[in-house]
Amino acid sequence: MAYTTSGSWQVVQEWAYPHGAEPVAIHGREENGRGQKRCRWRLPNGSFDDGLSGLKLSELPLYNAGLLAERPTKRVYVVEGEPAADAAVAQGLLAVSLCGGAAQKDFGEALAALTGREVVLCPDNDEPGRTLMDRVGRVLASPAKDLKVLTLPNLPEKGDIKDWFEAGNTSAELEQLAGRAPAWAPSSSVGANSPRTVDEWLADEDESLDVVIGDGSGGAILPLDGRGFLAGSTGIGKTNLLLRLTRCLSEGTPILGRYPVPTPRTVLYVALEGSRRGMRKRLRKVWDGAVGESRSRFLLVFTQLNLASDDGVAELERLIVETRTDVVILDPLRNAHTLDENDSRDMALLTSTIDRLIAEHGCAFIAAHHDRKKPPMTKRDSGTDRIRGSTVLSGWLSFCISIEKDKKPDMLILEWTKVRDAEDVLDDLTLSFDRERIDFAATVRSAASKVSDDDVLTAVFHAGPDGVRGSTLVEVVRNATQAGERTVKERIRDLVRSNRVLEFIADEDSQSKAKSYRLPDEED
User: Fold this and answer.
1) CA atoms in the 13 A half-sphere facing the CB of 462
2) Which of 157, 174, 279, 504 is the most buried (most CB within 10 A)?
3) Separation of alpha carbons 11 and 32, rounded Å
4) Does residue 431 contact residue 411 with C-beta atoms inside 8 Å?
């Protein structure tokens, strides 16, 4: 979904938030005829373009607050969102909702209106909905006369009370369920983090992973609560690979033809750089031939974010709640904050902010990121040492893919620099880029193909001006690449023939004639 001010937006529904007999704010839903929607706020005599003019959501009353005084002894259902509250009221029930959706944390004085009431919390069937009602329950635990939580049976994933009624259930059935519902209790009990013995830990069954991207061996590259990086240098093609990945996630088709996506996912792509024109050109190629609901599961927004600020976090939360996404893509991460990526404290702040969003909204995060700059005459660092910034970032990840250019045009090398939940070691790949379709054909990199010029040059560079004996050089490169001795020696000979490495016999090897190698200097 690309949010834009162009096109003909029409208000299709409005909900008034009352303060006494008069509304204090209006929440409206707009559509533009192209399948796009947005929800905005206005003052009673204002416009949606002006918003609430400084009035905070935490200062607003409950939706349907005016009905509470009219029915002082009636059971109150707390639901998520105005449509859910309207659906319950249409069934003769008394239902209210908060103004901020699942992302709301500051309720102001709104919940004070439920003091002394019989209250039933009715969460949406998703983790953000349950988390919201847990926050509400903590506020109402003392003021409410009777506080229960009702988990509606047979709800679809992310379904709510409105869906439950539309499935043919009645208010009488709901009232019966509410009467039998358990008393509310906080989701985390005291002592949940107490030390446990080995036998106590082993007595528990492992929680099943909600796999977003599988490894093909029963493990996960990315679980639903995971975080991943696609890292590489500027302009290498990270956005192209991410866009192809998002189509696979939306369709439920294997990524790169190798890594399964067990369940089609809703994806929110947050574009933080680039042009709309260029993105449309890419999207036409990536989504050519796609049919069905998969197209509606991919949502795109061009925006600016600063996750180091409360406003930036609130804006991302709004997008997550509105789209009910499973996977958030940030492209690139560096444009999503103003923190110092090399400062461990700053990165701990950033990762904890994203972790909270993951926990409260039940989604995974993937970000485009950058490798460290490569030193002259050497290859890149190995593993997560390649990732730019503090080690807080690399330790935080569920997976990291690093990509770099191969020697041939439109060929990339893909290296798995971290995979936390995979069952087996994943093969490094060579990717052949199809520019017409923005697609990638993947083949496993053989041991021979893994020996690059940089592998040899790096070892020679670190040996210094005195050079390195040939047998030592071969051993170092073999250990780094797992390639065969013949393959390594052939690569060394190629570099000698091209004069990028000099072959010589050191004084101490004058009798054995053992060869050594060094980099050429200016005099050479």
Assistant:
1) 13
2) 174
3) 9
4) yes
CA distance 309 to 69: 39
Distance CA 144, CA 116 (A): 5
Judge contact between 473 and 456, C-beta under 8 A.
yes
CB 258 within 8 A of CB 221: no
Residue 43, classified by CB atoms within 10 Å of its CB into exposed (0-12), middle (13-18) or buried (19+), is: middle
Identity at 230, one-letter amino acid code: L
**Integer Cα distance of 431 and 450 in angstroms:** 14
Query: What Å distances lie between residue 161 and 117, 122, 135, 474, CA to CA?
Result: 20, 8, 19, 68
Provide the token pair at 76. Answer: 């109150």
Helix axes 453-463, 470-481, angle to 10 degrees: 130
Residues 6 or more apart in contact with residue 72 via CB below 8 angstroms: none
Report how far residue 332's alpha carbon sits from residue 18's, in angstroms, rounded to the nearest whole number.
42
Distance CA 128, CA 358 (A): 9
State phi, psi for 437 to the nearest 5 degrees: -110, -5
Compute CA distances 84 → 43, 91, 112, whole Å.
23, 11, 21
Structure tokens at 345: 């404290």
Please state at what angle helix 310-323 crosses helix 344-361, rounded to 10 degrees. 30
Which token pair is 363? 């989604």
And the tokens for 226?
Answer: 């995971």
**Parallel/antiparallel/unpaired status of strands 411-419 and 429-434:** antiparallel
Predicted confidence pLDDT, tens digits, the chain (524 residues): 333 333 478 899 999 998 777 889 999 998 887 777 788 899 999 988 888 888 888 899 999 999 999 999 999 999 999 999 999 999 999 999 999 888 788 888 999 999 999 999 999 998 888 989 999 998 998 888 999 999 998 888 889 999 999 999 999 999 999 999 999 887 754 344 567 788 767 776 666 678 999 998 888 999 988 999 999 888 899 999 999 999 999 999 999 999 999 999 999 999 999 999 999 999 999 999 998 889 999 999 999 999 999 899 999 999 998 888 999 999 999 999 999 999 999 999 999 999 989 888 889 999 999 877 665 545 555 556 678 889 899 899 999 998 988 878 899 989 888 888 888 788 889 899 999 999 999 998 765 556 778 888 888 998 888 999 999 999 888 887 767 787 788 889 889 988 989 999 998 988 888 999 999 886 66
Measured CA to CA, the distance from residue 331 to residue 466 in angstroms comes to 45
The beta strand positions in 362-510, using DSSP E, are 364-369, 399-405, 411-419, 429-434, 439-444, 468-469, 502-504
Strand intervals (E) in 159-312: 211-214, 220-223, 227-231, 267-271, 298-302
Cα 317 to Cα 216, 324, 478: the distances in Å are 32, 10, 48
Rounded CA separation 495/504 (Å): 13
Terminal CA-CA length for the chain: 59
Tokens of 124: 């949406």
Q: Tokens for 103, please give them.
A: 């992302």
